[in-house]
Amino acid sequence: MPKHDTPLLDQLESGPWPSFVKDLKRQAEKNPACWDILGQMEVSYEDKITHWKHGGIVGVFGYGGGIVGRYSDMPKRFPGVAHFHTVRVNQPSSKFYNTKVLRQIMDIWERRGSGMTNMHGSTGDLVLLGTFTEELEEIFYELTHDVGVDLGGSGGNLRTPSCCLGQARCEWSCYDTAEACHNITMTYQDELHRPAFPYKFKTKFSGCPNDCVAAIARSDFSVIGTWRDDIRIDQAAVKGYVNGEFPANGGAHAGGDWGPFNIKKEVIDLCPTNCMWMEGDELKIDNAECTRCMHCLNVMPRALRPGLDQGASILIGAKAPILDGAQLSTLIVPFIKMDAENEFEEYKEIIEKCWDWWMEEGKNRERIGESMQRIGLPTFLKIMEIDPIPQHVKEPRSNPYVFWKEEEVEGGFERDLAEFRKRHPM
Amino acid sequence: MADREEVKAQILELLTKSKKPALYLKDMQKKVDAKPREIKNAANELVRDQKVMFWSSGSSTMYALPERAKDEDKIGV
To answer: What parts of chain B have a pLDDT lower than 70?
Structure first.
């Protein structure tokens, strides 16, 4: 039986899409506190302001992240949500849960929280929505001792690292993303749980340039699998696609009437760098021109595969703020090896150098991408001790100039003007 | 460069005398004579010793003395 009238929220149930209002009403039958979520939201819709107060001293002992405090500013009217703290739970790498773990987590959350979840937050955590301060330590104890999971990151911390399915399920993955994500999570426990940085810092691991975790858009430190030798071509399979023996795109989009597969129209002409052509019935690729867009591999997965000299590119500086619009990561290191055997040493060397600089120079609430923009890419490359390469230049003449120092130029800046004019008369 | 105990003392003094009830790490870096990582480690030891508390907005984190952290209406981001 509804505790509050919610005519504005009720309208949301009438649309064609699944509604969170319906979910909340269903949950409220089990947990009456959820009626107060609906009641407070209805008031917010009427008043056109939020009635949540964000932030606070809530947390579990010794951790500076993982719990996000939230309170109602109308606790007497809506006592069920007087406190409504969020608990972020670090998801397993690649989100490989078993049902036992999910049931255990939900048992805890039904007993000690609202039962409402967000699966998953954009950083990747399981987000458990709404509990009281006095339940936090109990929840933390049960999660860590009974289920074997930990809290994720929040605040000015390393946020919960996340990764794609990687080599566990995907033939394109150029390194073991799940192993990398787990290793980095365990190595940087201190940075994850104890605030260290001027603002949030996210790292994500994608196994190939398809970038299934959107690392390039959503992480300050994006690790995207790539290769530095040639795309492997199975010419017999290319013929198979051309002859219609294999469905393009692995059979995706097969429902439409697309006509027979046309390799020129559907692959070669769509290559962004025009680096493919047919010689007779053989497909040729100028690999030096390939920008790893993945289109040809996606369309003909049986015929084309990533090269064998595999690793990852490091891109830095993405953020997705609400007001300014999204900023993608910028390529900083074109290729590193992502070896589990050496504990991802190259990755760690680069990320720690970034942190050491950003902790010193970053301003309060300034993402590393904003710090980079403020000082300019050439300066950032110098700090990172990386020589500029053409791939660092996005657009000549507008972004960014690379200035040479005299000692870096053979013969210096001195020149014989008379000699120059002999070759270039006025 | 100050040693760990000295850094902790400087942090506590700063948190006591500061006009704002809670401070960011960056605020401490301007006043405490130590590298950022050393300040962060010292501040976190103070949290473990229950002399300092975290105040988090969810997106960023501040440090405060327990008696001042309760003055939440004056803490903001």
So the answer is: 1, 71-77
Q: Which contacts qualify for A119-122: CB closer than 8 Å, 24 or more apart? A: A120/A91, A120/A95, A121/A88, A122/A218, A122/A320
> Which residues of A are less than 8 Å from B35 in CB distance?
360
Question: Residue A385 is part of which domain span?
Answer: 162-227+311-408
For an interface test with A, the pick among B29, B54, B73 (most A C-beta atoms closer than 10 Å) comes out as B54
DSSP labels for B9-40? HHHHHHHHH-SSSEE-HHHHHHHSSS-HHHHH
Taking domain B4-74, whether its CATH number is 1.10.10.10 is answered by yes
The residues, ordered by sequence, that sit 6+ positions from B42 with a Cβ below 8 Å of its Cβ are: B4, B7, B8, B11, B34
A77-97 pLDDT, tens per residue? 999 999 999 999 999 999 999
Distance from C-alpha of A81 to C-alpha of A72, rounded to nearest angstrom: 6
Q: What pTM, to 2 d.p., does this model score? A: 0.91
Indicate the residue of A62, A157, A359 with minimum beta-carbon distance to B47.
A62
Q: How many domains does chain A have?
A: 3
Ramachandran class of A163: left when φ > 0, alpha when ψ lies in -120 to 50, beta otherwise: beta
Q: Tell me whether residue A402 is in a domain.
A: yes
Contact with chain A for residue B61, Cβ under 8 A: yes
